[in-house]
Structure formats: C-alpha cells, structure tokens
Amino acid sequence: MHNFDFVKPATIADAVKALSAEGAQALSGGQTLTPTMKQRLAAPSLLVSLTGIAEMKGVCMGDDGLSVGAATTHATVAKEAAAHYPALAALAGGIGDPAVRNRGTIGGSIANNDPAACYPAGVLGSGATVVTNRRRIAADDYFQGMFSTALEEGEIVTGVTFPVPEKAAYVKFNQPASRFALTGVFVAKFKDGVRVAVTGASNNGVFRWAEAEKALSSNFAASAVEGLTVSADDMIGDLHGTPAYRANLVKVLTKRAVAAAQ
Amino acid sequence: MPKDHGIGASSKRREDVRFLSGRGVYTDDMALHGQTYAVFVRSNVAHGRIKSIDTSAASKMPGVLAIFTGEDFKDVGGNPAGWLINSRDGTPMREPKRPVLAHGKVRHVGDAYAAVVAETYNQAKDAAQQLADDSDIEELPAIVDMKKAVADSSNRVHDEIPDNLCFDWGWIEDNRAAVDAAFKSAPHVTTLELVNNRLVPNAMEPRSSIGEYNPGTGDYKLTTTSQNPHLTRLLVAAFVLGIPENKLTVVAPDVGGGFGSKIYHYGEEALVLAASRKLGRPVRWTAERTESFLTDAHGRDHVTKIEMASTKDGEILAIRTETLANVGAYLSNFSTATPTFLHGTLMAGPYKVPHVYVNVKTVFTNTAPVDAYRGAGRPEATFSIERIVDKMCRELNLDPFEVRRKNLIQPDQFPYTTPVGLVYDTGNYQATLDKLIELADVKNFDKRAAASKAKGKLRGMGLSTWIEACGIAPSNLVGVLGSRVGLYDAATVRVNATGNISVMTGAHSHGQGHETVFAQIVAEKLGIPESSVEIVHGDTSKIPFGMGSYGSRSLAVCGAAMTKAVDKIIAKGKKIAAHMLEAAEGDITFEDGKFSVAGTDKAKTFGEIAFSAYVPHNYPLETLEPGLEETAFYDPANFTYPAGAYLCEVEVDPETGKVDIASFTCADDFGHVMNPMIVEGQVHGGVGQGIGQALLENTSYDENGQLLTASYMDYAMPRADDVPFYTVDHSCVTPCTHNPLGVKGCGEAGAIGSPPAVVNAVIDALHRGGHTHVKHIDMPVSPARVWSAING
Prior knowledge:
The structure holds two protein chains of two kinds.
Chain A: E1 5-7, H1 12-19, E2 24-27, H2 33-38, E3 46-49, E4 59-62, E5 65-69, H3 74-80, H4 86-93, H5 98-103, H6 106-112, H7 119-126, E6 129-132, E7 136-138, H8 139-142, E8 157-162, E9 167-174, E10 181-190, E11 193-199, E12 207-208, H9 210-218, H10 243-260
Helix pairs in contact in A: 3-4
Chain B: H1 16-20, E1 36-42, E2 48-53, H2 56-59, E3 64-69, E4 105-106, E5 112-118, H3 121-133, E6 135-139, H4 146-151, E7 165-171, H5 176-184, E8 188-196, E9 208-214, E10 219-224, H6 229-240, E11 248-251, H7 267-279, E12 283-286, H8 289-295, E13 302-310, E14 316-328, E15 355-364, H9 378-396, H10 400-407, E16 416-417, E17 423-424, H11 429-439, H12 445-454, E18 458-467, H13 475-480, E19 489-495, E20 501-505, H14 514-526, E21 533-537, H15 554-580, E22 588-591, E23 594-597, E24 603-605, H16 606-614, E25 629-634, E26 643-652, E27 659-669, H17 676-696, E28 727-729, H18 749-768, H19 783-791
Parallel strand pairs in B: 1-12, 10-11, 14-15, 20-21, 27-28
Antiparallel strand pairs in B: 1-5, 2-4, 2-6, 3-5, 7-15, 8-13, 9-10, 9-12, 13-14, 16-17, 18-26, 19-20, 19-25, 22-23, 23-24, 26-27
Pfam families (chain A): FAD_binding_5 (PF00941)
Domain FAD-binding PCMH-type (chain A): 1-167
GO molecular function (chain A): FAD binding; oxidoreductase activity
C-alpha cells in the first residue's frame, strides 16, 4: 500500500469539500477500496472517510418508506431494518461474512456497483430512491452498467429510501469461491405491480426482468414464470458459469424468491 | 475404558496451547536487529525472453541496499530434481537447470527474475515495481495445454527440450505385451478419460524465509517454512550455493501447514542467504498470498485415459492407463517421483488384478511447478481406479459393493505381490468394507433418497475402496529406482540427569501433533508421565539428520527410529541397574518405569538410573560410558499400506447443479493407532481437502498462461459449511508387519480415498434421477458443470 492522507469529516459539506482535492477518494466501509489499495492497484493521495457523518448513518422508517443512511453498515441494516423490511434486512444479513458486514456500507456498495453485489438488486428491485448531496435519483436511473452509476464528479450517495412492498424476498446463488452472488434475484410485490431485479448475471450489471414482472403482476406465483425463457445474450460467462447457466439461474432463483416472499 | 495417557490415548495436543493462544512463533514473527526486506520481481507473462533489466533507477531509490538478477546466480548450481526417472527406451529424463532467479527466459507467471533488498518492505516494493517497469521482456507464445505442448516442437519451455517432454515412463514396461493381450481377449472393456485437477496447496501460513550471515564466524542461518530442514540444508549446501553444511543451520520453527508444498527448496531461500552474505545483515521475505498462488508448487494435474478389462460379471482382468502429467515450468524436487513411483505403483489398488500397465508422460508447460501435494500420486491413481470400477459396474449393471468385494485381495493372500511392483504386507479390505456398510447405514439409503426427493433433491451414494503406500522406503530400493536421497529417519533420545527427556526428531511437525504423540510413545515405553517428555524438531543444529515429514511417514519411519532409540536407552539402563543392584544384566527386567531384579523386590526407578548415569558415583565406569543419550536411524524394509473404504452421500439440486455432501463415512485401517483424536482429525482434514478437490478447487490457466484463479475471489477452498460432520472409524486393525509400532500412517488417507467417493455419488444421484446419459463429470464437480451435464 502506498502512503496517503486521511480525513474524517463530520458533515456532508466538509466531506464534499475535502473530496474536491486532487487525488482524493471517498472511503466508506472500504471493503473494495482497501484490498485494491493493498494490492497497489489504487493509490489515492487522500482518503475521505464518510463514516464519521452522523446524518449519513442509521435506519429510519418515515412516510416515504425506509430510509437508510449511506454509511450504515450491512450488520446494522440486517438488525434494524428487520421489523420494517425483512427482505432487505435478510439481504444485508447475507452479504459476505460478519467482518464484511460490520465494515461494509450500503452507500459504498451502490456507489461501487459491483455486478455481483447484492444491494443493487435490493435497491433496484424495491424501486428505491438514491439520495445524494445534490439530488434524488430513481433506482431505475441510477444503475448504469457494471461499476457505472449516475453519480457525477463530486457527488456522493448520502442515503437510500426504500418504499416497503407488501411482500419481497432476495435469493442468491453463491459463486463458490468469493460467495458473491453468482446470480441473485430480488422480487418485490407492491400494490401496483411486481418488480424483479437481477444481479450477478448480466454484463450490463443489475437489471430488471420485465417479462417476469409482467407475469408476476398478474399472478404472483412461481408457476407464473415457468413458461418464460431468459436469453443468455449479454449474460456473464466465466470460470464459475456460462451465460446459459446464469440465464437458468435467473429463472430458478426468481421462482424461489417468489415462493419465499413474505 | 479408553486409556488416558500413553499409546492409544486421545491426549490433548500440547502444541495447541501456543497455537490457539497466539503464542506460536512463525518465521515472519521473528524480528531481528538490522533486518532488511527482500521483494521479488516476478514475471507477468507466462513465457518470455529477458532482453534487459535496467537496475540504474531502482538502485538509486530510497532505502535500496542491493539488487539481484539471474546474472548474479548464473554460475551457481540449480535446484535439482530429487528423483531420476528413465524413459521407456532407457534414456534418462530431461533435467533443465532451475536457477535461483530466472536467467535468459521467464517460464511462468510469477517466475522471479530479480530481487530487491531494501531497508523497509515498502521501499523494496517501490523499487521492485521500478525494476519491473525497467525490464524488457519479449513475450513468447505460452505453452499451457499438455497435448499441444508435446505435439509442437517449435515452441519450447526449455530451448534444449524439443517436445517439452521430461520423460515417457512405462510401468512395468516388460509387462506391456501381456497386458495388451489380456485386453484383446477380455469379454468387456471399460474406458474413461478423466482429469485429476490441478490444486493450489494453500497452507495457511505463506512461505517465508530469513537469511542471516555472520561475518564474524562465516556461519549462515536460514529460518524458513520447511517440512524438512535437513533436506533444505543439503540442497542449499551441496547443490545450489556451495556453503559447507557445517556452516549452515536451517531452522523450520512453527510452520503453519505445508501439505507437501513446503517439502521443497525454493529459490527465495537461496536468495535471502546470498543477500545476507553480501550485506552482512539479516534479509527476510514473506510471500504475499498472490505469490503463494503463483509460486508454491501445485498438486495433481494429470490427464488420464484409463481402461479396465473385465468379465461380464465384474471380475477385473487388466488395467491400462495413459497419463499426461504436468510438471510445470521447472522440476520441483519430487515432481518426477510423484506421477511415477507414487502413482503407477498404486495402480492395482486393493484388487487382485493380474495385469496392469501404466504409461506416464511428464510435460513441461509455462505454469507453476507441480509436485507432491497431500497424497501425491496416490489420489490420482485412486481416483482413476475407483471411477472406472464404478463406470464398469454401470455398464454391466452390477452392484458396486459386490463387484469391489469380489475383486478385493483376500485376507489370507497377504503378503500380496501386485503386478506393479509392490508387496502389500498386510490388510483386511473386506473388514473395512463391512464396517463401512454398517456405519453408513447403507440398508436405509432408499428412505433417505425418498426424503431428499420430497425436497426436490437427487440423492446418490458413492463408494471408494482405496489403498495407499506411506513411508516410502527402503533406501537401497528407492536408490535403484532413481531416488537421489535416502528415506530413513532418525531420533535422539536424551535423558536428562533428573529423569525427564528431550527427544530430537528428524520428523518435522507443521500441524500434525508430533509434540503430543511422540511424547505419548516415549512416555509409554519408559513408564513415565507424558509431561516428562519434550519433543524438539525443526533445527538442524539440534536434531539428527532426518528426512522431515511428508508422505505420512513421521510415525512409521521417525516414530520407529525413536522407538529404537528408546530401546537402546532401556538396554543401557539395564546395565546401570545391574551394577547398582549387584545383579547380572540378564536378570534385570524393565517394566512400568522400574528396573528390577527378576524374582526379587530389588528395583531402581528410571529416575534413579538416569541420575546415576550423570552422577556416576556408583557406576560401572570401567565398562560403560556415563550419560544416557541414544540416537537411532531407521530405514524401513517396505512401505506401509493403509487402506480403507469410504462412502459419500450427496444431494444434488437438479435446477442449479449444486452438490451438497449429505454424509461422509470412513472405515480405515491404519494399523495401531497412537492417538485416536489426532488420527480422526487427520482424516477430517484429508477428506475436507478431498471434497475441495472434488467439488470446489479449480486451478485455471488461460491460453496465455495467466492464472485466472490467483486469489480466493476465484479459487474456492472448502469452508466449514461445505463439509459434513464426518463419521470416522479406525477399529479395523491389521498392524504393519515391519515397523516396531505396527503403524501405517494416516495423514494423506482422507485426501486419497475421498474424491472418487464424492464424484461416484454425484453420478449415482444423477442416474437415480433419470439423467443416465451422464457418464462422468470432471473435477471440480461445480454447480455449473453438473447443470451442464444434466442439460447437455
């Protein structure tokens, strides 16, 4: 690891100001950034920690849904969201291992937008709103492909607000080595329809499976997706699974998520 | 009631107190005055010609003390192969030089071609990066696939070896015609092509070495992660650097696992010694995890075609195999023995098969060297045999239990001479098979299968009846077969004046529990408490010349040496007792820690005799030297042959292809068991690694020779929830006939017997589920591969 300077501002304004410096990099839980730096693949000159900002932490139920501060750890979401949004809490409680969950944050996860991360499926599948220091971005507009988001220069995620569905579940199939999602499916049933978001499978990052949403909106049962086919085009092919295998998992896991939804 | 101390007791592992409380001392824990840090510059291409290395910028960087390249070592020796194999036509194997640092060419990703020594680790890292940037390496086409490597002589890993072939070995060549004839007349022939997948050893502690040169005395010390410090000393001294053995001490302190990968001498060890000599300061290096993936000697990597000739009712008539074995870019120390004498000689398995012929071609490729890894050749043989036995049963619609039972060597046939050159001294393979069937509750399998089906899962069971050979020996035989080392071991038993004991062993413990078990044996034999016995290992300045620990040899070979040394102590003790008790030596008996005059109540305790040996006031000084210390070397008359039967039950999710191990049952014959708890732990660990090979571990190089699985993000190691609660039994005992403890060795058994049981179970599950078109799935049997097989 190369040497770097470190600041831990207490307000969003101070953090944004610090990030305007040359070579500055935001640090949340550091679950991707720190290993990258240890391998000398990244060498920011200044790390701006976002975990000392009180208004970016915590889980809170309000009129527009469940708000989660961007610097809230997965372990905290797993615990504190359980009463309000059990499927989201379960997703958070299934990320990585206890060490990862006690450091990693929702903001860090969705700002990085790893194609195999769990949170993007939860955020997109819930139709959540990503809140930044500048604006509110609908999940449908926020995720823009592998490791790519709508965030602009100098813009940081400060929180995510989730509408709470009637029923939801997240089911993932682990990549055997990393235990990231080889494929993960988040299904959420709202009064006005069903959303299905898929992570881990596509070369374009997290996506919504429109055909399944349509079928499930008229009949919220695993059997409703039985007749659908998932195209293997644009699916990821690697050591752990071919595009066809991932396409199969999308359907299998969607059925299982529907069956598990509560 | 089970014993609570001595031989056969499950004494708690005394070494765990320091391991579990963070008080172990590993190489990287040692801080030394004036220490410096070495970082290696490693090739990022699989195959390349070194055009130039410009050291000028790196050498001026802060803290940089020295830079080394292959040029600095071109006149010293190479790291040799430990075993010379001759090809079928009698020509000796090709043995390219393995230099300390690559010179002229780099031959695999991770091949070190330069090293930087600096005041701090970060300074050395910075300079190593600079040096990498300032090196001009012309990339050459990578040679990765073994079949292509032997077919294309225009592209060579070593320029002087045209077909990339190390040797083409036939075992036993003289039997080839008879084997071929047996196939021609056979009623049924089963054929299977399979892969024994390459594995990365993944010891928890990465390799680490510290070189110290004392300019005042001219002495060198190498502290290193080794399974056998004397072998490392011999290789460094006699072959690589030419340091006299008496001026070099090698210390292998606490070592966090090896599984074979730390048997061998590596160039990093020579570098830190040479650098320390140049600087007059300690030079240290510890591998980063990625370096471990790239440069630790890997395991397995065989591609095999096996054929089995049989009658229609499953009697095995002949076995014939053709194997391509990858040795990687250079010959690691035992890389030539592993696919030959540890593999071909086991190809009859536990069966009375009259005709066997094995052909092995070893191939150089632009990949990390491959060498012995837990089991070493025997897992490859066992997997091949046990998979094809199962395939034969399926083709002929025969019961896999009964076919194995029919073919197993019968108890009254021992000693049994196999057609591949071994003499199995003893065994009872029916007994372990019967035990297994009982313990695994085979008769109720259908009920469990029905319960699995109700959950949407396919249940299968897979059997493996295996045998292996441990404690490779004797030295004069292995010498004839090409070994360049002896395979004895040694122990010194030093009785202190106050009656407690230090035992110096040639065996090295890197997790096995020698400090506990060896003490149990000595305590039992001398009738003293285990706590009175201390085991010293791992330091060439303290221990006798031994061959270290690998190949499940510690107890069978070093334990036997230790037993012999204890017998010498008792014999001398009798002489001392005879003098003190004024009796004839022949009348002295030794039992329960007491020397007695037979038929009387006259006796001296072991402690009194020890005291007298060191304070010899009442002592036969005219005829007996004072002191009570004995050394024994032991060279076994034969291998030992542990054997057993394993049964794995799996549940397969047909929608995702995921395989879960539902149960795993082991019935082993290890001969006499010294500490059941440790034996069971060894089996657990071995089976865990076997499950890893069977289901998870996939070492994958792409066509450019880049290691795709160079971290835990892509290399799947078994985790706790990947393995079941094991049922392990070792109550079937046929003691080894030729070592004094009657022991056979248990360290590798689990890794040898388990992979075919797992794969057989998966195939069984798929067949029971109606997917009868699936004949075989290569390891690792990953979810994606199972799903593809089902839907293929």
